[in-house]
């Protein structure tokens, strides 16, 4: 298995998520031609039936329109699209808000020869507040159930792909760390991962380390950063969907927009004299998208952290 | 994110802690934790009011743009009528132009609201599986295999809608955990997995031949359901995951189409890990028997 071989750096694709990529918005005037656009929708799941009759109309009830599984999936719903790849049509209200808002202002200052009437002022105020509301619509839409994050994961510049582990580890521990990091990079929107359990460090993915540093130097550098922030003593999960402004997190790679720190807690009991020691650690995941980890992702990340809960007590 | 900058908040979303299970303790030599820190000193994320409010009032927010757009439409017409201007839609005067632009924005809002309503996911209710809870692990397994199996069960039951898990490897039932169908012989006891019958069945054969996961999203539609008698009778969804070419994991869920694609991807990768662990164990077992002989 390539994933368990510790001496190779895994080439992972940018499209890290298995699920959806394109999310389009549907508007009345183009929803009448199903055949044109159905091919554009990425059909990853063949098992779901495709729905073709989602013509958007004045009907408000939506029974039978979409499926519960589509909370995180590519929706097999007819959508309007310009067909330009990489263009997210769910941001259309925002562009229209900007465009029409600026046209309104233009009209106010340039358009009229005589002074403006109160009626015009009223309608302009209404128009400007509507455009402000439209601009915030995509932001609100992101938090709705079933909102699908467009896969905007781009690799930020200035990072290098590395894969290093502490010295003197048992084979089991090495395999577990390699598998854990591989799975986290592959299945979530992560571009960099750091696992620290007790004194063991494993770093994989894209990081901005100082140039030409040897492996031991990098391990020392990361270890020092971790100690400075005191991450090893974390008790709760920390989730920063938007990057905080403080400069504490300088070990993070450049261009990171959200990251998550999941603690690994374990109390080990020594069989002989019965002393109990708590070995703590954490998993740090960083992504180039904001709001990258939803609830289900965090459940799974917690499950991976639990895997190391047991490994922490095994003889290193 | 400009709107995010407008609202200027750092988000925090409440985290659900995973329940701690008691795993077997390994009496090995212990590595003392070397540093005694004063605790975590970094920044903490702040609460995001917008995200919480939107998630809690999902339905209201979905229809909000429609109301906003509709009301503004009416407001424009009302404005025209009380100002004594005829409601004629031409672009000659600046008043008409401003009105047209406002109408365009109102229509955009209404359409966005309709889109949001149309993509509302249908909520499917959970069906509690009928049966008895059980936890059966093959007697001959070493600690590391047992802990891995229990870890898999804990992860699946917390992160997905899985309620039953059966793992069959090399014609032995390695694990049967969760809710299982009641045995007809002794009521109150979970049914025993008949591995020979399972291995000879069509589901097993097709899964092994394809070598990839099979997801039966709505189990009541499949006649081959009778090959899985050990699952509760009202199991809604099943994932059949091959473990290499020697075993299979049967994962039963309590919701129709309850497993998402990300769950499927996670299950595939966990199965690879389990397969390597179990094959390592079976290799060591064959080595031991060879040495004995």
UniProtKB/TrEMBL annotation, chain A:
GO biological process: cytochrome b6f complex assembly
InterPro entries per UniProt: CCB2, CCB2/CCB4
Pfam families: CCB2_CCB4
A single cellular component GO annotation: chloroplast
Stated name of the protein: Protein COFACTOR ASSEMBLY OF COMPLEX C SUBUNIT B CCB2, chloroplastic
Biological source species: Nelumbo nucifera (Sacred lotus)
UniProtKB/TrEMBL annotation, chain B:
Superkingdom per UniProt: Eukaryota
Gene Ontology CC terms: chloroplast
GO process terms (BP): cytochrome b6f complex assembly
Transmembrane segments: none
PANTHER family listed in its UniProt record: PROTEIN COFACTOR ASSEMBLY OF COMPLEX C SUBUNIT B CCB4, CHLOROPLASTIC, PTHR34943
Name of the protein described by the UniProt record: Protein COFACTOR ASSEMBLY OF COMPLEX C SUBUNIT B CCB4, chloroplastic isoform X1
Species annotation: Nelumbo nucifera
